[in-house]
């Protein structure tokens, strides 16, 4: 709060932001303006709703503070920017960006809101540092609908790889020094994104489909056909990093490929699961010659964004917002990302101070949050405050019920 308070035009807005952050860090199972206001001791959710919709402050300013906190806390050595999208299941059609679309959260087409996120990952830890809301063409082709959700007039349709490129460019402009970018097939299959990274002398390890073609020895070959040509002696068993059950061991091979008009060194990296025989393919680039182990380490970092999604949704309620407009969505997400980054950075600092103990696993973000809640954030509300809120909720629900009945009783 000492860091972000100057970003707010009024002291009451800064105090409400503090109440918001404490609430999303808390043990509340459902995090929305109603439940969070009750925990903060507010008489109603009005203050938090005002913070998200009408108060004078810029989410982009807090993004700068967030990124500075993450970089200072996690360091810059071998930093990787990881891009990926995630979906939040939503009802109705008025929430900005919502339509029936595929989301990996559900594994199928659902009524959802999708956004592309950028994770900053080092050996110390990882945290979300930026995001971009995906607006389907059903939104960008409907100016009235966009205006109702307060989408800026200059925001047009952009694919997910284009949004990822915007996030990466924004990070570079902000002075974030990252040696690598990692992502899944959505981004690896996009030649414009790969060209943008190569032109900026940024290495990448991006997953691609098995049917994608590369140029080897002056001819095109599919990724899966290329894997068949790799001799057994070329495969090396390496760990992609530490997972929940220990080191993630696979066999890896790489083949140099040709990228016309692009600088640097280029490879096709192939990962083999020696138990199932399953193969995965990565387009790779770096301005300098690097080892196979370096490419494998970056490939392993891609999963940090999945961990960031799981942790930020499960611990700080990234997906639990009940806001509908462009501004409110950007404010909710930046505040939640800031709270989650605090957990990550402080956990990393605590790990550095801990005396190594072979009988304990290292301190996790989940365990640190449990201690934070138990020792610092446990709410001590008087019973009268709880009864006041119960009365307020019931009055609000009765008004909503009456309004609904009145609408249904009107003649058509």
From TrEMBL:
Question: Which stretches make up the Transposase IS701-like DDE domain?
Answer: 6-215
InterPro entries (UniProt xref): IS701-like, IS701-like_DDE_dom, RNaseH-like_sf, Transposase_11
Record-linked Pfam families: DDE_5 (PF13546), DDE_Tnp_1 (PF01609)
| Boundaries of every Transposase IS4-like domain copy | 220-340
Protein's recorded name:
IS701 family transposase
What species was this sequence derived from? Gordonia sesuvii
């Amino acid at each position: 709060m000492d860091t972000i308070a100057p970003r707010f035009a009024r002291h009451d807005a800064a105090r409400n932001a503090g109440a918001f952050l404490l609430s999303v860090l808390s043990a509340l199972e459902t995090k929305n303006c109603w439940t969070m206001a009750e925990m903060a001791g507010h008489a109603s959710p009005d203050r938090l709703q005002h913070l998200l919709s009408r108060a004078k402050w810029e989410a982009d300013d807090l993004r700068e503070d967030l990124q500075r906190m993450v970089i200072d806390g996690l360091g810059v050595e071998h930093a990787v920017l990881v891009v990926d999208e995630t979906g939040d299941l939503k009802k109705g059609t008025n929430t900005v960006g919502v339509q029936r679309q595929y989301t990996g959260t559900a594994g199928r087409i659902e009524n959802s809101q999708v956004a592309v996120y950028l994770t900053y990952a080092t050996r110390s830890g990882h945290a979300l540092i930026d995001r971009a809301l995906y607006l389907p063409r059903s939104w960008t082709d409907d100016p009235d609908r966009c205006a109702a959700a307060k989408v800026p007039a200059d925001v047009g349709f952009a694919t997910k790889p284009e949004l990822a490129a915007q996030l990466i460019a924004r990070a570079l402009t902000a002075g974030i020094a990252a040696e690598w970018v990692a992502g899944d097939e959505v981004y690896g299959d996009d030649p414009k994104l790969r060209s943008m990274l190569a032109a900026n002398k940024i290495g990448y390890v991006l997953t691609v489909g098995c049917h994608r073609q590369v140029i080897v020895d002056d001819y095109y070959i599919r990724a899966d056909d290329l894997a068949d040509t790799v001799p057994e002696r070329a495969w090396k068993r390496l760990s992609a990093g530490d997972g929940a059950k220990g080191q993630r061991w696979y066999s890896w091979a790489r083949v140099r490929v040709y990228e016309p008009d692009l600088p640097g060194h280029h490879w096709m990296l192939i990962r083999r699961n020696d138990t199932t025989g399953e193969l995965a393919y990565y387009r790779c680039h770096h301005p300098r010659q690097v080892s196979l182990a370096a490419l494998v380490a970056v490939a392993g970092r891609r999963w940090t964004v999945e961990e960031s999604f799981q942790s930020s949704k499960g611990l700080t309620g990234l997906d639990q917002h009940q806001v509908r407009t462009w501004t409110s969505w950007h404010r909710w997400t930046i505040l939640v990302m800031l709270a989650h980054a605090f957990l990550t950075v402080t956990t990393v600092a605590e790990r550095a101070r801990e005396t190594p103990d072979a009988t304990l696993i290292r301190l996790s973000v989940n365990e640190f949050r449990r201690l934070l809640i138990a020792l610092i954030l446990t709410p001590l509300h008087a019973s009268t405050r709880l009864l006041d809120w119960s009365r307020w909720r019931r009055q609000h629900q009765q008004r909503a019920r009456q309004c609904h009945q009145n609408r249904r009783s009107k003649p058509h």
